[in-house]
Amino acid sequence: MRILLIEPAKSPISMAGEDVFLFEPLALEYVAAGVKDEHEVKILDQRIDDTVEQTLEAFRPDVVGITGYTVHANRVKRLAERAKTWNPEVLTVVGGHHATVAPRDFDSPHIDLVVVGEGVDSFREVVRRFDVCEGFDGIPGVWVRTDEGLQEGSPNPAPDLDALPFPDRSLTKAYRHAYYSEYMQPLASIRTSKGCPFRCNFCALWKIAGGRYLKRKPEKIVQELAGIDEEFVFFADDESLVDVTRMKRLAELIRESGIRKRYFLYGRSDTIAKNSDLLALWRDVGLERVFVGLEFFRDSDLEYINKGSTKVNNQQAVRVLQDLGIGIYASFIVRPDFTEKDFAEFRRYCRSINLSFASFAVLTPLPGTDLYDEVEDQLLTRDPEFFDFIHTVLPTTLPLKDFYEQYFRLYTKSIPLRNVFSFMSKYRLRDIPANLAKLRRWSKRLRKLHTDYAA
Ligand code: B12
Ligand code: SF4
After folding, report:
1. What residues have CB less than 8 Å from 64, skipping those under 6 apart?
2. Mean pLDDT of the chain
3. Is residue 16 pLDDT above 90, yes or no?
4. Which terminus of the chain has a smaller tally of CB atoms within 10 A, N or C?
């Protein structure tokens, strides 16, 4: 059989995404790896190659699989509709993060099956049964659409990550030069773990993994790393550093293997603050940048989101990384109820810790989180395209125009100018004009964001 897997492009309303970074479709590479030995598989990355109808016509798939986060939910449904319009006989299967936390949102006449949770084994079984014209009942994680609507499937057990095949990166060969995060290009992704032992109220990842931290064996990770061509590698984990013993072992194995790459991974500030030796070890094997969820500048806000970390941890972590010369991707959260005074204090705090790069996400109650249950009745909109962490979906204390003016100033005034220049010097010279243009477009859009709510 022929199987087409599609990574959707976001809607132009949603901010971020491929406007500012582009990561390989790792989920689809995993799903593909489970079926490629028996079937012909193609991955279409619509963010780069928007040729859906032409691809359907040329490749003539029997099965179309689509992935997506919450921001993509409308697009996913529309893609399934396009596939069914091309050929009503094609089997349409939707999986991914949004399908996992809100499968009912894909109760659509154009979607035959929804896969909740890990997809490799479930999808392989779906394809096998479709091939031999068997029904889909009882496949773990698979919800089936009948004349009565989408029927709940049986639970999908937590996966043994080491039992999964390696993702098939050969299927994205034509696109790989385009994957990047800021100056890190071309960039590959690898998953080394799943889940998290912490319980932040704005995050569903610990729930999806059943509250556990699932990890791969360091030996398997090194084996997969050895097959990656790109110099930059991003760890697509929910939290990479938290098991310190495992990460020490992994760094040692990387050193022994002689693999030389430039790594980018997620780390909690408390882990970093307490384990400078681990970070030093990783710096020596190529750790170049850490994505740290510093989130807020006050302990009361950190408590509100149940972060389990403190302002002191944050400051210590920043110092550890700066002393080691490891880049910090500081990720902060802006509460919709912030006043001008809060924004001013936030800016001062960021400047005081002398960052070179920061992102500011508007606090967003994502489906599947405790926060969502708490504030669902306050939502300004349920349109998934607004769940991009830039549009607020909760009422702001400041008028929206003023809120986005302050938000814009946070982006432009929180990083000392000399640090902006030193960060820019990491880019390839030829990429600087395009990135400056991107930044200009982004700034222009941000300052007008309040108008998106007019309708
Ligand atoms: C890497 C990553 C990114 C990368 C981009 C990756 C990409 N390809 O675009 C970066 C850092 C750029 C990013 C950006 C954003 N991200 Co992000 N990101 C992740 C992260 C950490 C890992 C994703 C990943 O690659 N996992 C590894 C793969 C192998 O696992 P998987 O996706 O779960 O896939 C398995 C199953 O879901 C299933 N499956 C998946 N697809 C399909 C399809 C079919 C057909 C089938 C059968 C099965 C199936 O099988 C897969 C393999 O077993 C997740 C956390 C997470 N655990 O998902 C957050 C996460 C997905 N991101 C999230 C968010 C919110 C964002 C942003 C909106 C944040 C922002 N403002 O910047 C943007 C939006 C990006 C966009 N495309 O528009 C949220 C999504 C929440 C939601 N409800 O939508 C997550 C869950 C983190 C969180 N905070 O909770 N992200
Ligand atoms: S530390 Fe990160 S991954 Fe873990 S629960 Fe909090 S936000 Fe989620």
Report:
1. 3, 4, 5, 6, 56, 79, 80, 83, 90, 91, 92, 93
2. 97
3. no
4. C
Identify the CA nearest to 205 among candidates 368, 334, 331, 371: 368
- Are 159 and 173 in contact, with CB atoms under 8 Å apart? no
Residue nearest to atom 20 of ligand 1 (CA): 236
Number of neighbouring beta carbons within 10 Å of residue 390? 23
Q: What would the two tokens of residue 227 be? A: 């097959």
Whole-angstrom distance, CA of residue 447 vs CA of residue 455: 17
Residue 140, preceding bond cis, omega within 30 degrees?
Answer: no
At 131 the three-state DSSP class reads helix
Q: Residues lining ligand 2, judged by CB closer than 6 Å?
A: 196, 198-200, 203, 205-206, 238-239, 268, 293
Residue of 161, 160, 143 whose CA lies nearest to 152: 143
Question: What pLDDT is attached to residue 205?
Answer: 96
* pLDDT-derived band at 455, boundaries 50, 70, 90: low
Q: Which atom of ligand 1 is nearest to the CA of 266?
A: 21
Q: What is the largest CA-CA distance in the chain?
A: 65
171: left (phi over 0), alpha (psi -120 to 50) or beta: alpha
At 136-168, the pLDDT tens digits run 999 999 999 999 999 999 999 999 999 999 999
Atom 50 of ligand 1: nearest residue by CA position? 119
Average pLDDT over residues 190-198: 97
For 399, counting Cβ atoms within 10 Å of its Cβ (0-12 exposed, 13-18 middle, 19+ buried), the class is exposed
Whole-number Å distance, alpha carbon 26 to ligand 1 midpoint, is 9
